[in-house]
Amino acid sequence: MATWVQALHIVQFINWYPVLTPYQAGLGWMTVGADASGPLPGDPIFTETAAYDLTITTNPNITIVSGGLVSSNNGQWRFAFKNARTVAFIAGDDFDFLTQLEGGTAITSYYLKEHAEAGKAALTTAAQALSLFNDRFGAYPYPTLAVAEDCLRGLGHGQRGGASYRAGYADYAGKPDSLLVATLPQALARLWWGQIVQGDSFNQPWLNEALPMYSEYLFIESVLSRFEDLVLGLRINYWKPEGLLGRPVSDFSDDEDYLRNLLRRGALFMDGLRKNIGDDAFFAVNSASNGSIDRTSVMAAQGIKESASNPVSPIAIVVIDERKESVIANVLRRPSINSAPRLNRLRK
Question: In which region does residue 102 sit, left (phi positive, over 0), alpha (psi from -120 to 50) or beta (all else)?
Fold first, then answer.
């Protein structure tokens, strides 16, 4: 489903062009049948990798933000990159930006001029998260990373070489437990789990959602450790996620159900799995550069075992399928950023 959103000073385009459904040898075209006839929770997209070359012509006062910038000259913008699953872009007439080098990657933070402090915090957070995820998930494979304030107060939208995010910019007050700092790492984690490696967004959406949500906790645990209990308590457990993980996206009634009982449930599963097998094994498995995962392929969980009576305790640990495409296995679900009482910043 195409997403075209406009707000004051910003227009964004996500999933805005036709995409050929993936084909897997021996399985055929990966379709979802009648379930795809209407909007689905989470707005899933399921794509193989491709090379993109995007040219946008606009007024000279407009800034275009996307991954893989090649050139910009008097309203003519060109972006090009390989091994990407989607290309999105944002246009704005009031953007300012800051750039920082982190581990060989040029990170640029784009933000509305009135949100300059939030833009600086986003750049710092992105650099810290990039360093952490390079260590935990494997090296970020692109030379640039663009982080942009967008039109939505919700989950970030990962794309090759960039992530757009609005949550917390307008109300950022310089505190480390702000919504912006707490949740931006989830958007960046989707560049590993969604771009570099992707699961079946229709039939096994938890593969794409559990690790990015848990990455919020990994970031707070490593960078802002005094707030880690708040993340588990207010961003995850407060919502009382329930139900089994291994369900297609059409089984979730709406976005709230999907957010609460897939992302947050998935984060609980990842936390339980990590405690069960230990950090060394957990991070060895969950590596986008792991030799058992082909980054141009699509993840598929095999042999998942679920338990309605004990859905948090990991049962199956790791299964690699016969084509060595991946991955992990078990039981859980997901959250909403801004749909509950505002008890504090992290609970949003």
Answer: beta
pLDDT over 90 percentage in the chain: 24
Q: Which two tokens stand for residue 1?
A: 């489903």
pLDDT of residue 158: 38
C-alpha to C-alpha distance for 120 and 303, rounded to whole angstroms: 44
Strand partners, 5: 12
Both tokens of 297, joined, read: 């392929």
Distance of alpha carbon 149 from alpha carbon 165, whole angstroms:
5
> Per this entry, what is the length of the chain?
348
Tokens of 178: 């702000």
Helix (H) or strand (E) holding 248: none
Whether pLDDT at 128 is above 90: yes
Cα–Cα distance, 31 to 213 (Å, whole number): 26
Q: What is the DSSP track for 267-325?
A: HHHHHHHHHHH-HHHHHHHS-TT-TT--TTSEE---S----SSS-SS----B---TTS-
pTM: 0.78
